Amino acid sequence: xxxxxxxxxxxxxxxxxxxxxxxxxxxxxxxxxxxxxxxxxxxxxxxxxxxxxxxxxxxxxxxxxxxxxxxxxxxxxxxxxxxxxxxxxxxxxxxxxxxxxxxxxxxxxxxxxxxxxxxxxxxxxxxxxxxxxxxxxxxxxxxxxxxxxxxxxxxxxxxxxxxxxxxxxxxxxxxxxxxxxxxxxxxxxxxxxxxxxxxxxxxxxxxxxxxxxxxxxxxxxxxxxxxxxxxxxxxxxxxxxxxxxxxxxxxxxxxxxxxxxxxxxxxxxxxxxxxxxxxxxxxxxxxxxxxxxxxxxxxxxxxxxxxxxxxxxxxxxxxxxxxxxxxxxxxxxxxxxxxxxxxxxxxxxxxxxxxxxxxxxxxxxxxxxxxxxxxxxxxxxxxxxxxxxxxxxxxx
Length: 396
Ligand SMILES: [Mn+2]
Prior knowledge:
Blueprint: E1 2-6, E2 14-15, E3 18-19, H1 21-37, E4 42-46, H2 57-71, E5 75-79, H3 86-89, E6 100-103, E7 113-117, E8 120-126, H4 132-138, H5 150-169, E9 177-183, E10 185-187, E11 209-211, E12 220-224, E13 238-241, E14 258-264, E15 270-276, E16 283-288, H6 290-295, E17 306-311, H7 320-327, E18 331-336, H8 346-352, H9 355-367, H10 372-393
Parallel strand pairs: 1-4, 4-5, 5-6, 8-9, 9-12, 10-11, 12-13, 16-17, 17-18
Antiparallel strand pairs: 1-14, 2-3, 7-8, 14-15
Bound molecules: manganese (II) ion (MN).
């Protein structure tokens, strides 16, 4: 059985103010062509179909065209990510027949899509993104809700998957091959994950990282969330991120973007290869004085790229943007970062981590309060409201 694994389309996303929808449609057109040429049995889309809960109209149009085209020759299995609104993405999903399978509901996550080839069935459990705060109640048993963590809710979901598998496997000798789709921050025990700036933090709800062990016993685990393709180390079965089809931040400038093709043999052994998706433009982050950036001959290669410029002059040069744009017409962002200055740029602060940590640092610095327990009280209140708002916005 041959599967095409992709994720994190982020339809409707812009890049430093640049609307990417045409590039997204072109990239997904390429994905459709790969699926057709490789005669895949199914395309797996592992969450973050859209960039936000209420996507712009052109993004919905691209989704409809791409999925419609895929469904004309193969199965499409779609699950929701942390950027998607499960309810909106999953509208009518219960009434779809035939080749389009959209899985966004927590109460049915243990019902697999069953694909069949000459070697027998493959069960695809497409888990929607699980928000720890709400999922812990749905997935709890007689003992009450499961702990409020990504590992706990995903672990509970996988317990349900294994229970379903046990029932299906009981009393039959046909081998049941298994695939799980999930959207989470998963890491192997010894290998740090490679993150990018365009992934929205999952720290809301506690520790974000989920160990690969939760997917033990599954032949192939198709992940979404991290935008760089990678394989977290796993004791058994193969666990893999396909990565996004396009670069969505300058931190991804060096990543090769594509899709993953998975061949499951008769025993469920997966063999993977990647197919690159052509990118609309190269991307480059350039650092130097304005004179270097506009004059250095070695930068000629980047003139056609989407450029982020970090200008290191001691004093902010006049008409910095105009000068840069004259050389790099596709300049997307330019910042003045005087060398040797100790200031934290907004980018560095934002990338630092948990937005609540950033706020805590600010409160400590700005209020001069050194009573940590008073601070903790404020922060608990802020966390409560922040997380409630995230849930309401459908971003967590
Ligand atoms: Mn994503």
